[in-house]
Write a structure and sequence with these properties.
Blueprint: H1 19-40, H2 47-60, E1 64-68, H3 71-81, E2 89-92, H4 98-106, E3 110-113, E4 136-140, H5 151-161, E5 164-168, E6 176-177, E7 180-181, E8 188-192, E9 206-210, H6 213-222, E10 227-229, E11 232-233, H7 244-275, E12 290-291, E13 297-300, H8 304-313, H9 343-351, E14 352-355, H10 363-377
Parallel strand pairs: 2-3, 2-4, 4-5, 5-8
Antiparallel strand pairs: 1-9, 6-7, 6-12, 8-9, 10-11, 13-14
Helix pairs in contact: 1-7, 2-7, 3-4, 3-6, 7-10
Bound molecules: pyridoxal-5'-phosphate.
């Protein structure tokens, strides 16, 4: 019999995320940053945006970083800058947040899915060659839950064929693959500052990383309606500008990111220890050469929905990322995919559950979550 910590006898509130706790610790600094922007009235794409770009580019050893309005717009702007649109195909994973494939579609291109690896939940690079056509323009891997996809294998397919690689690193800021930071190995890499990401803003925001300064220049034009000089438009772009207030808030938080990431990694290690005796579940697998930043700690759980309800009754917040594979979304019906086309992705959608792993999680909360997970499976 496993000995459950005492806390498991009564319920304890464990939110999936605790943004209020994060804010409480940074309150004074955040208020100063926000007031600074208000005083300057330099409201969009202003000085704090330049400073954030400079810092993030430097942290990533990247030649350029381009602040944009969201992670979604980072993907869309990257595709537009690479002139990937009507008539093009972009290969991606069906097991990701909607924005990945939605951006391909909105650029006018066709999302082409390949199934995922069952252990990492990331795009299975061994399947890429089988779906490449003369219309293929890019591969768009996602670094899901904070762990990078197998970039070497992906680049080995892309490079000889002249395909662009756009990394969706929305969940993976600070992660690395064989020492290379997420977002820096492809033609472009996109980051999101949505509040649930490891570096979350005061609302929406995103950034594009690239080693190609010419491409970055084009992105800077596209993010402001393709305006090459005032009211002269070389291309049709969009409004993908990042607000100064977002950048100012993010600059405050950026100083804490390394510490928060270390806390997430430590929480994941503790879960690994405490959940090791629970044979029923599958814990996250981090590949050799990868450093995961654990945007989510995702287990595979038999009788997942019952387990989620059991944890909810115990006061524990969990979430399913993602319950429906993108090839099964009604809006993509015209792509012609059918249930069963991507069995690994469909199976993951039925089994995954994200446990609270955020940096503010206390040891008592973590032990309580682990005890409840074990309790659910004990004797079943
Ligand atoms: C969050 C997320 C996005 C979109 O980012 P937003 O900033 O919310 O637009 C794209 N892809 C993945 C994998 C994400 O998790």
């Amino acid at each position: 019999m496993l000995n459950a910590p005492q806390a498991s006898r009564s319920t304890m509130a464990v939110p999936l995320l605790d943004l209020k706790a994060q804010y409480a610790a940074l309150r004074e600094e955040m208020l100063r940053a926000v007031v600074g922007v208000l005083e300057s009235q330099d409201l969009t794409n202003g000085k704090p945006v330049r400073e954030l770009e400079r810092r993030i580019a430097a942290d990533h050893g990247c030649r350029a970083a381009v602040g944009v309005s969201s992670g979604t717009d980072a993907l869309l702007c990257s595709l537009m800058a690479l002139e990937i649109g009507t008539g093009s195909e972009v290969i991606t994973t069906p097991f990701t947040f909607f924005a990945t494939a939605g951006s391909i579609w909105r650029a006018g291109a066709r999302p082409v899915f390949v199934d995922i690896e069952p252990d990492t939940f990331n795009l299975d690079a061994s399947r890429l060659a089988g779906v490449i056509t003369d219309r293929t323009k890019a591969i768009l891997p996602v670094h899901l839950y904070g762990q990078m996809a197998d970039m070497e294998a992906i680049l080995n397919v892309a490079k000889p064929r002249g395909l662009a690689v756009i990394e969706d690193a929305a969940q993976a800021i600070g992660a690395s693959y064989k020492g290379h930071p997420a977002g820096t190995l492809g033609t472009a890499g996109s980051l999101s500052f949505y509040p649930t990401k490891n570096l979350g803003g005061l609302g929406d925001g995103g950034m594009i990383l690239t080693q190609d300064e010419k491409l970055a220049e084009r992105m800077r034009v596209l993010l402001n309606h393709g305006q090459s000089s005032e009211y002269h438009h070389a291309w049709v772009g969009g409004n993908f500008r990042l607000d100064s207030i977002q950048a100012a808030g993010l600059l405050v938080k950026l100083d804490h990111l390394a510490h928060w990431t270390a806390r997430r990694q430590e929480n994941a290690r503790r879960y690994d220890e405490l959940l090791a005796p629970c044979d029923a579940i599958v814990r996250p697998v981090v590949r050799a050469g990868n450093v995961s930043v654990f945007n989510w700690y995702v287990i595979r759980a038999p009788r997942r929905d019952a387990m989620k309800a059991f944890l909810a009754a115990a006061g524990i917040g969990t979430k399913i990322y993602y319950p429906l594979s993108l090839h099964q979304q009604p809006c993509f019906a015209s792509l012609g995919y059918r249930p069963g086309d991507f069995p690994q992705s469909e199976r993951a959608a039925a089994e995954v559950l994200a446990l609270p792993v955020h940096p503010e999680l206390t040891e008592a909360q973590l032990e309580y979550v682990a005890a409840k997970v074990r309790e659910f499976y004990a004797g079943r």
